[in-house]
Write a structure and sequence with these properties.
- This protein is an alpha+beta fold.
- The protein folds into three domains: 9-67, no CATH class; 72-171, no CATH class; 178-342, Jelly Rolls (Sandwich).
- The protein has five helices and 20 strands.
- The longest helix is centred in the first third of the chain and has 30 residues, at 9-38.
């Protein structure tokens, strides 16, 4: 309890009943032991009971305050209202501390669905606790957590808004984004097979945006990898952030689904880029967003919706996506969206 290590709120919610049982057992055992050792008259028993009560209340208060930091917020509704006050419905909300997922998840989910349904991103905001450095903000790259904003922002020049409970929010962008992919991009364009054998077909039975989704069915033997055609060239004039969204579902449970890979070709500072992968990582890792599809079937699918974040220097780019499916498995993808938005000027 003194290590300072913390995890996702659900971990503590699941473990709390077990912790209570062990705490109660320990208190009973300790009380019986003290009673036997002292063989005390009545007033000493009252003292033991009082001490037990004080210790119990103290431990409960300590654990709630230490492991449930959200309870320190005087008004959770005020916290959420302040997030909405300083952001727009189509803004992407990043949360630096997983212990704050509990109160921010609803707004993050609603905004994310607005972004993919409207194919429109209006900005990016970061929620952080007091004392947190932007250089330390990390995204999940598939193998590890990496600091995506290291040496990017000069924190003392940014405008932070207090949103209660020793937490603040800051805008990381200052302009509207460019939407690169059209609606139903994943099912409207021809995909090129890079490795393996399988089928990439439009699926009209299950989707969450548009009118259909993309179904990848890999043959047995090796993974099935496909690549989209290059999109039109886009000129990026200033340092920018790139946002990739996608939704995926698996008809077969426990099927591993790979994160889409963003690839570019173009020029940066006179250097020609050919099939260069853009370094991205999943934001708000652990805040799992799952929604039911909009199909009319009696057996609807549930989709996981994710967001990857990366950086782009000024240059001229053409983008494409690579998708990978495990051998012998089937995966459906939908809501592939790609946005480019300039970082806030400092």
């Amino acid at each position: 309890m003194t290590t300072g290590v913390a995890g996702y709120p659900r971990n503590y919610l699941y473990n709390f009943p077990i912790w209570i049982v062990f705490l109660a057992g320990g208190l009973v055992y300790t009380g019986n032991l003290i009673e036997k050792m002292w063989n005390s008259p009545r007033f000493k028993n009252i003292g033991v009971a009082s001490l037990t009560l004080v210790l119990t209340v103290g431990m409960l208060l300590y654990n709630f305050n230490h492991y449930y930091p959200s309870l320190k917020i005087a008004d959770g509704n005020l916290f959420k209202k302040n997030i909405q006050r300083y952001s727009k419905p189509n803004d992407l909300i990043l949360v630096a501390d997983s212990r704050n997922f509990l109160y921010s998840r609803t707004i993050y989910k609603r905004n994310l669905l607005n972004i993919i349904q409207d194919n429109k991103l209006t900005g990016i905001h970061l929620i952080k606790p007091t004392g947190f450095l932007l250089d330390d903000y990390e995204v999940f790259t598939g193998k590890r957590m990496d600091p995506i904003f290291k040496n990017v922002f000069r924190q003392n020049l940014l405008n932070f808004q207090d949103i209660s409970g020793e937490k603040s929010m800051v805008a990381l962008t200052n302009s509207k984004s460019i939407s690169v992919f059209p609606e139903d991009f994943e099912s409207r364009f021809n995909w090129q097979t890079i490795r393996g054998q399988g089928k990439a077909t439009s699926n009209e039975n299950h989707w969450i945006t548009g009118k259909n989704s993309l179904m990848l069915k890999a043959d047995f033997g090796e993974d099935f990898i496909i690549r989209s055609a290059l999109e039109n060239k886009i000129i990026v004039s200033n340092p920018s952030l790139v946002i990739l969204t996608w939704a995926r579902t698996n008809p077969e449970k426990r099927t591993l689904a790979y994160t889409p890979v963003l690839e570019v070709e173009g020029t940066v500072n006179g250097q020609v880029l050919s099939a260069r992968q853009v370094f991205t990582g999943i934001v708000n890792d652990g805040m799992n967003i799952q929604i039911q599809d909009r199909s009319n079937t009696t057996d609807p699918f549930y989709w996981f919706v994710n967001v990857s974040l990366g950086k782009l220097p000024p240059g001229e780019y053409s983008f494409r996506i690579l998708l990978n499916t495990k051998a012998g498995k089937t995966v459906l993808y939908d809501s592939l969206r790609l946005f480019i938005v300039e970082m806030v000027r400092q």
